[in-house]
Structure to design on (252 residues):
């Protein structure tokens, strides 16, 4: 298992662009236990686990080189920005990845419409100069489970399971009836704040199911309790930091 977030990791993510939604979603999901849902009203801000009246959050992904922790976000390879309305509904998500070559540079944007559980979004991707636009919608099977469905004839279905507080706990990517990947998320709390997020990833690679892990450990928080620095590991024992996530927030 590699101990850094590499170009190969990036290329694997590119196999299913909606997996990038999950990658960002897990990274943004860093809320404490004290922020409980007081009414049966879903919003994406709840799902992403953000505290306070968040208007925008930007995440910078910095990989580890030569075993050194990057001192700031200037050398980031990935940047993700989410904006919300004042009720917590997502307005737009933008992502950009750049590992230094055209083949490893991509941009993605999701423009959202609707409120609560009635959500649609247009995904605009620019990968290797190829621009594509696809419309998607959320299809709920019960109060805490939905699928992300493309308007096109597309065999890929992405299934999301939430807990009773609308936090992400499972994500399944399927191609017709074939499971391509399963992401299982465990959140660990301490002193009413998130301490760790453990993700077990099971992927179908060349017909063989392979298991890997991503562990996120919170390092610093802002005054609202949202994390500003996160160490990411690719091994369950957290032997080496693979990446550092820096976050900036603006509030209403």
């Amino acid at each position: 298992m590699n101990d850094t977030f590499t170009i190969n990791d990036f290329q694997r993510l590119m196999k299913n662009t909606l997996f990038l939604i999950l990658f960002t979603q897990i990274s943004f999901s860093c809320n404490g236990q004290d922020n409980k849902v007081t009414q049966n009203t879903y919003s994406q801000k709840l799902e992403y686990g953000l505290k306070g009246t968040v208007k925008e959050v930007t995440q910078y992904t910095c990989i580890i080189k030569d075993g050194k922790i990057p001192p700031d976000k200037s050398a980031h390879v990935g940047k993700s920005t989410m904006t919300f309305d004042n009720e917590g509904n997502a307005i737009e998500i933008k992502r950009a990845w750049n590992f230094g070559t055209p083949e490893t540079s991509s941009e993605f944007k999701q423009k959202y419409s609707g409120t609560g559980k009635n959500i649609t979004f247009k995904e605009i991707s620019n990968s290797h100069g190829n621009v594509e636009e696809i419309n998607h919608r959320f299809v709920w099977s019960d109060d805490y489970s939905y699928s992300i469905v493309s308007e096109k004839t597309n065999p890929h279905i992405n299934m999301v399971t939430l807990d009773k507080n609308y936090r992400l706990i499972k994500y399944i990517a399927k191609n017709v009836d074939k499971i391509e990947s399963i992401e299982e998320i465990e959140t660990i709390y301490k002193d009413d704040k998130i301490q760790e997020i453990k993700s077990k990833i099971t992927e179908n690679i060349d017909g063989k199911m392979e298991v890997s892990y991503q562990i996120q450990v919170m390092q610093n928080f802002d005054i609202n309790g949202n994390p500003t620095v996160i160490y990411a590991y690719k091994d369950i024992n957290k032997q080496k930091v693979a990446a550092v996530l820096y976050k900036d927030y603006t509030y209403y």
Summary: The two ends are 42 Å apart (CA to CA). The chain has a mean pLDDT of 83. The longest strand covers residues 208-221. The chain is about 10% helix and 55% strand.
